[in-house]
Amino acid sequence: MWRSLWPTIDRFSLHHFRYIVNQLREIRVVDKRNREVVLDLLQSIVEIVTYGDRHDPAIFECFMEFQVLAEFVRILKIGGNSGIEAPLLQYLSIMIQNVENEHAIYYCFSNGYINSVISHHYEFDGGDLIPYYVSFLRTVSGKIGRDTICLLVKVHQDTAISLPLYDEALKFANHGEKMIQIAVRALTLNIYNVADEMVYQFLTTPTASAYFSSLILNLKNKCLHVDAIINGVKESFHEKKRDLLSETDRILDDFYYLKDILCIPEQRLNKLVTENIVNMLILPMLLTLLNNRLSNDTGLSAITCLYVLCRLLQVFDGTNLVNVIGSAVLFSFMPPNVTDAAESVVSARLEQVNGLAVCYQEGEEMVDLQHEGAENFMMNYVLKHSLEFTELSSCFDSSPLENSENEWGGIFSCIFSRNHSLMLGSLMLLFTVADSKDLHYQLAAKIGFSQVKTASEMIGSTVAGHIQKIVNQLLKVLASEPPLSVPILLHAAWFLRKLLVFLDQKLEDNDCHLFKTSYEVSCGHLYEEFDRCWFDHIPDVLKSEWANCKTALEESSQSKDPFFLLELASIQNPPSVFYLTSQAIPVLLLIGNGWLIVSSYLAQSGKRYPSDLSLASFGSEVALGSGIPCKIAFSGAGTRDIYVIPIAREISGKLLLVERHPLHSRKGVVIAIAPLAGLDPKIDEEHPTWLLVHLRDFEPRLRSDETKTLDSHTSLPEQGRWILGFLSAKDCKAAFSVILEETRKQRSFVENLVAPVLEEKLFK
Predict the structure, then answer these.
(1) Which of 254, 360, 477, 547 is deepest in the core (most CB within 10 A)?
(2) Contact, 712 vs 534, CB < 8 A?
(3) Contacts of 663 (CB under 8 A, 6+ apart)
């Protein structure tokens, strides 16, 4: 009753706001005793200001009149060790984030209050202050525009000397916390997008532009870490792959961040970033490849260089970087034996590649970059000089090819290398360059992959004239003995299929023979699997791998992940022959276009023909029929009288151990089941009434130390074995013969099922 007589307080009223502000202004020291009181006052102010921004303009006028932001700065300075910095920054972030009135935002950024909060000396050692601070900086950056960013710039004699928001944020650019890195990069992009003339002059000064150099240096360090992971000897393949995926994801993050910067329509910023990418990343990597070195002066391997360059081309679409790389690749098509000394070759390539960067600089100086058509003028100017370099070596392009890959320099020495990872990586780079939609038409014609289709049009192209030799090199990989790893076969087939589609013609006689040989080798390995314990899984594996191979081979070079290069460099032990063969045959069939027969095979392999016995499971009742009586001893269960019933129906084969049913003399209950394939029955020499059968799993185990490869050489005794004791040696031999006969029937069905895939007429 008495409470109703007491006047209520409107906590969002102007009067209450003045009261709260006056309470805050009376605070002279902040310590642990009054910390909570101060925080309540700050929170109330933020809530009322946010409310007033939408409903009561008088509140923000009072906010400006009392200079409340100055009070925030004062509280921050007298906070001492009270731990008030984090919540104060959080409240400021909430207020700035929710203020929508442009006049209010302009006031918040004026008078240097925000810069005072940014430049305050914080103790970041330990604790959780950094996330609050960086979040505050990002919130501020999200509210700035071209009209307000100048309010945060420190100016001396009409020149920007500092941008605290930018400078302080960059101190956390390499922070270990991923979310903090993302926030800093979002902040920088916000600044780049709204920067005015004065700010861009500041960003391109040596002090501020050092950030871009640092970004590329950190990127190179990540590449070196990739090398270290690949060359590590203590890690398993799965551990390596996990670490490689993590590190390459970080590299990709850097690439997309740089791409976002280049998408900002500011020529000075684009030029600065592009120069750093070209001079500090692309050119050193290209020189590693063009000079036929396994690593460069910084220790970066050729494989990692190829991966990074391919990824860079896939990410940086819409830029001229592809023409830089394409021109450099063209310069390298010159056999080293045409020069007097190897040193002059290296010097010439250095001059050619660096000359391209000079051409870019000259082209930019000759034309107003802001003028319409300036970019096309500059590109034509650069390509003119690029193609002049190429024409100088045109006489070498027409020189006869030698058989020794050691006589070739540049990227050809990689393509014809005995290192399969290096060969596939260099082809990946070449295909990525050729398939880029941003490749200049003159360079595309020189490479000759995407723009050239017929043999007559291939005259004058630099690479197309050597395709037959490249095809031969890939076929040698597919036909190699002993077989190489599955990824190498699969990716070699991908390149081979691309080249065959490009040639639009049949293989030469020698290559056709090599192709047929590689197919016969794969078939031979597959036939050997019929003598091992997993032959009943061959159709299913072929069917599943067919789909995988078809998807992989139809992938475009722009969408193909070059991560496979790092995987190839990390694989140490070859997978089982069975898995190699199961992938090699679908690969060869896809290239050879054996579609019709294989399609019918796939349809047939999906059919199943069930029967009572073939569907029997543990505890099922089955007819004893022609079962052979015997005894078996199970550990902990003693000796039991059973019947042995081997049964093969189509692709399915089982060995049933059946115990007589207590109520039905002609029926039994299944007490154990083993796969028929892999039993490998043997009669004990010392006990002719004993039959030994080995046991394997029903489903194949996948190796865990590499890619998912089937271990066809599983040690069967590790799975267990049964010793079956028969009443007589005659019964033992009868059981032995029946098991072999049923196994033969199962194997015969599988062979007939797979036979259409292995017929030579597919390639006639």
Answers:
(1) 360
(2) yes
(3) none
